[in-house]
Write a structure and sequence with these properties.
The protein has helices at residues 2-21, 30-36, 45-51, 65-69, 142-145, 249-254, 261-265, 445-449, and strands spanning 52-56, 75-78, 88-91, 102-103, 106-109, 112-113, 120-121, 133-137, 152-156, 165-171, 177-187, 190-202, 209-224, 227-242, 269-286, 289-305, 313-329, 335-356, 359-384, 387-403, 408-427, 430-441, 465-477, 484-501, 511-526. It is mostly beta strands and 527 residues long.
């Protein structure tokens, strides 16, 4: 509770002084200003075009968030229609081993983190109708974002440009539908965006029903000509998400649309609900100095059932919050220096029971899991003639805690990562670029708490994955914006890759160990 109080206090520290400044007309360039100095320290204008892709999304024509990801090179989406396992995302191989949800890839919505400090992300709260654009950072990222071997995905809601009501709906012959209502408002120095979305999903297989309702609001506030804020409030509920499970070849040949019998017996699936409030503020101290501050707090209540009696009924209440501050100093048109600090704290109150054909049985686990992450980072950006350079360094310290009442355990991880990005302008908007980065990816809470050697302690044999990533490529954007093309080669060396395994004496449980060093190579091309 003390951590939550500190986070709320940081919100108040920003909100109260800004509110006293007074009301002025809205700065129409506000959206562009915040995007320029986002929380993860994105590089500026032309250098952005070298390091990342920004893709406008026509969300109306996307069935799920997964279909948006599948349009991007180097990104794969899995389980987009399995609402019990949640969407999984892989960038250049990172995240592919996740059993459920997203891991190793940092995600943000309107500059507010969606990811937990242990490196996992669930996006139950998002509706594809609220996603207007997406940016992808694929090369490392730990030197800027910390615990993220696979990079980052940044999502943005629509710019607030009109005050019209919008109503939309879709339906298919399986009985799936979605319906949503959106409204934008203007009032003095405040622009508002309000979105209420409901989705009902029925798959062609048996036992594939899911529902989700989300409320997303955004307020762009101009407290003063030099101080702007985004205030985000999000609430969601998914009361049912059924998991039909996998089938073997014999079952498929008999009836490919059936559900796995164990999944229906144990009523495999989940229900989840949560809330979030966040604020992102930009303060232009003077033409050379700017400060950004972000604070957020979110709660998540989860109840899930897996197709197994032992430890098959899981509940947890999660409280997650964080703050981030960044100082941007631009002494002239050639150089820029960015210094920053981030702090995130996560606490899970987890209980595990027997699954008696979908009903809660005897309690088997009652524990408190926690993660605290501190990060300090610095960025130097410069350009001389045709050359552009960005150098980043970051130190992270992450503490894991496990409290089972009759025993406590802790693990601490520290990492120092760097990256160097260099670009040379060949002609007009053509760039030859290369970058080298180091990255790390800590074990998740789930991986550390599954300890076959000592059920009261965090697994001390499990170490973070570490990687070295190198990339070279050529990019061109036409001046009139009619087309662009990109081709690049990347190479990634991963040490101590975490691999899942099973033991015969623990039926239905998965454990983890550092068992592999891997090398990934690839060529990406886009027109």
């Amino acid at each position: 509770m003390k951590k939550i109080g500190k986070i709320i206090g940081s919100l108040v520290v920003w909100l109260v002084p800004c509110a006293l400044i007074g009301q002025v007309q809205i700065d129409t360039g506000y959206q562009q200003i915040l995007s320029e100095v986002s929380i993860i320290g994105k590089t500026t204008s032309s250098y952005n075009s070298v390091l990342k892709d920004t893709v406008s999304i026509a969300a109306t024509y996307q069935s799920t968030v997964k279909s948006m990801m599948d349009r991007q090179i180097g990104i794969l989406g899995f389980n987009g229609e399995n609402f019990a396992q949640d969407l999984r995302i892989s960038i250049r191989g990172f995240g592919a081993r996740s059993a459920f949800g997203i891991r190793g890839i940092r995600m943000y919505m309107d500059d507010i983190p969606l990811s937990s400090p242990d490196g996992t992300t669930q996006i139950d709260e998002l509706s594809n109708y609220d996603i207007a654009s997406m940016s992808v950072v694929k090369s490392g990222g730990s030197s800027i974002m910390g615990n993220a071997g696979g990079g980052a995905i940044l999502l943005y809601s629509p710019n607030i440009s009109n005050s019209q009501w919008q109503l939309h709906t879709r339906v298919n012959t399986l009985g799936s539908y979605d319906i949503g209502l959106k409204k934008q408002t203007f009032w003095k120095n405040v622009k508002g965006y309000y979105s209420l979305q409901h989705q009902r999903f029925n798959g062609q297989r048996d036992y594939t029903h899911a529902q989700n309702t989300s409320l997303y609001t955004k307020h762009d506030i101009a407290w003063h000509h030099s101080i702007h804020s985004k205030v985000i409030i999000n609430s969601y509920i998914s009361p049912v998400g059924q998991d039909p499970g996998g089938l073997n070849l014999e079952q498929i040949e008999t009836n490919r649309w059936q559900a796995n019998a164990r999944n229906t017996l144990y009523k495999a699936g989940e229900s989840v609900r949560g809330n979030l409030i966040g604020i992102h503020t930009l303060y232009d101290v003077n033409p050379k100095l700017s400060i950004t501050s972000t604070a957020f707090i979110k709660g998540r209540k989860f109840e899930g059932r897996i197709a197994n009696e032992d430890r098959g009924y899981i509940t947890f209440d999660r409280t997650l919050g964080g703050i981030a501050h960044k100082l941007i100093y631009t002494p002239n048109s050639i150089f820029k220096i960015i210094l920053g600090h981030t702090y995130d704290a996560q606490k899970d109150d987890r209980e595990v029971f027997e699954n008696i054909e979908g009903s809660k049985g005897d309690q088997q686990v009652d524990q408190i899991e926690s993660v605290r992450s501190n990060g300090l980072f610095a960025t130097f950006q410069g350009h001389i003639n045709r050359w552009k350079l960005s150098a980043n360094t970051r130190f992270d310290h992450i503490n894991y805690g496990l409290d089972k009442g009759n025993g406590k355990s802790q693990r601490n991880f520290s990492a120092w990562n760097q990256s160097v990005d260099l670009a040379y302008r060949l002609y007009k908007n053509s760039y030859l670029f290369t970058n080298f980065s180091t990255a790390f990816e800590t074990p998740t809470l789930n991986e550390l708490t599954n300890n076959p050697f000592d059920s009261l302690a965090l697994l001390d044999r499990l170490l973070p994955e570490k990687s070295k990533q190198w990339e070279i490529g050529l990019r061109h954007n036409t001046t009139n914006g009619k087309y662009k093309w990109l081709i690049n080669y990347f190479r990634i060396n991963v040490d101590d890759q975490i691999i899942p395994y099973e033991l015969s004496q623990f039926v239905g449980k998965t454990f983890f160990a550092n068992l592999a060093n891997t090398q990934r190579k690839g060529v990406e091309a886009q027109l």
